[in-house]
Amino acid sequence: MSSTRQFKIAVSGDQHTGKTCLVNRFRENIFSDQYKPTIGADFSTSVIEIDGEPITLQIWDVSGQYRSVHSMTRNFFKSASGVIVTLSEKPSHQNIYFCHHQKRFTCGADFSTSVIEIDGEPITLQIWDVSGQYRSVHSMTRNFFKSASGVIVTLSLNPSESSNSNIEQWRSMSLSVLDEDVPCVLAGTKSDLAKIDPSSIEAMSSSFHKWYYTSAKTGTGVKEMFEDLTRQMIEYENRKLNEERFNASNVRLSGGSGDRRKACSQLC
Ligand SMILES: Nc1nc2c(ncn2[C@@H]2O[C@H](COP(=O)(O)OP(=O)(O)O)[C@@H](O)[C@H]2O)c(=O)[nH]1
Ligand SMILES: [Mg+2]
Questions:
Q1: In the predicted structure, residue 125 carries a pLDDT above the cut 70
Q2: Which atom of ligand 1 approaches the CA of 17 most closely?
Q3: Burial class of 68 by CB neighbour count within 10 A (0 to 12, 13 to 18, 19+)
Q4: Ligand 1 binding site (Cβ under 6 Å of any ligand atom)
Q5: How many domains is the chain built from?
């Protein structure tokens, strides 16, 4: 399926609430009980068909350590066995890359592994490539949400198994970067272990555009949530485009002769 439109989705929420499993179920239709904490952020793409139109979703899955806005920055260095600091005479923007609109430059951090043989012993190197925006310690967190067209905040439906203490903080962190009309939804996860009933989630979801009841283990509601969110993102983008076109035509009309301004006031 070749795709025309692209949307970035930021999947956030406290650690262990099931973000990575939700993404894996949606992308590959798989589930694993083995817990592998996400370090920094994982990035993947998936193509979904909405009303016959192929849409590319860029899905960002964050590590979930809300405790500090520094955490993503700290994770970059945490447990590193060596540090490389690069020095260049060229402007720094020539040395960075991330995936957005066909260009590649690092947004947050890129992560890759490579195996190298030293004295006959294979050694795996985890290589982290940070975006290089030192200016603010918030920048990595901001980059996570930046240019997202949709946000998912996860809420474990089994609070004895994982905490949900920062739902509102995740929402406000996304709001500090994004327009408040960008679809931000609450995903109730692990419905197969649910200890919270749907009416309580509804009460917790008042500041979100929508909420869903999902299980990455059984697959319940996962595909439906991503499809529904994609529809909301399409609607949002179309609304924005229409507003921009309307504003641009008003500027053209009001920027012209006196007669044209009259035409504008009649139209408005
Ligand atoms: N029973 C059940 N366990 C789940 C579900 N989703 C995730 N888990 C488990 O919860 C743990 C944390 O999941 P993970 O996706 O890594 O959480 P993250 O830290 O938010 O990315 C793992 O042990 C998963 O196997 C689910 O839908 N049902
Ligand atoms: Mg994870």
A1: no
A2: 20
A3: exposed
A4: 15-21, 33, 35, 37-38, 64, 189-190, 192-193, 215-217
A5: 1
pLDDT band for position 251 (50/70/90)? confident
Instruction: Select from 16, 213, 225 the residue to mutate for testing ligand 1; criterion: most ligand atoms less than 8 Å from CB.
Output: 16
Instruction: State the average pLDDT over residues 240-261.
Output: 73
**117 inside domain:** no
CATH number of the domain to which 17 belongs: 3.40.50.300
Is there a domain that residue 206 lies in? yes
Q: What is the mean predicted confidence (pLDDT) over 219-225?
A: 95
Q: Which domain holds residue 186?
A: 5-77+137-240
Token couple for 151? 């946000």
Expressed in angstroms and rounded, the spacing between residue 217 Cα and the centre of ligand 1 is: 8
CA–CA gap between residue 5 and residue 7 (Å, rounded): 7
pLDDT tier at 259, thresholds 50, 70, 90: very low
In a domain, 129, yes or no: no
Averaged pLDDT of the chain: 74
Q: Would you say residue 11 lies in a domain?
A: yes
Note the pLDDT tens digit of each residue in 87-109: 544 333 332 333 333 333 444 44
What is the whole-number distance in angstroms between the Cα of residue 46 and the centre of ligand 2? Answer: 17
- Using most ligand atoms within 8 A of CB, pick from 11, 14, 15, 21 the residue to mutate for ligand 1: 21
Of 95, 115, 2, 129, nearest to 56 by C-alpha is 2
Contact 92, 98 (CB under 8 A): no
Nearest CA to ligand 1 atom 4: 190
Is residue 39 within 8 Å of residue 63, measured between CB atoms? yes
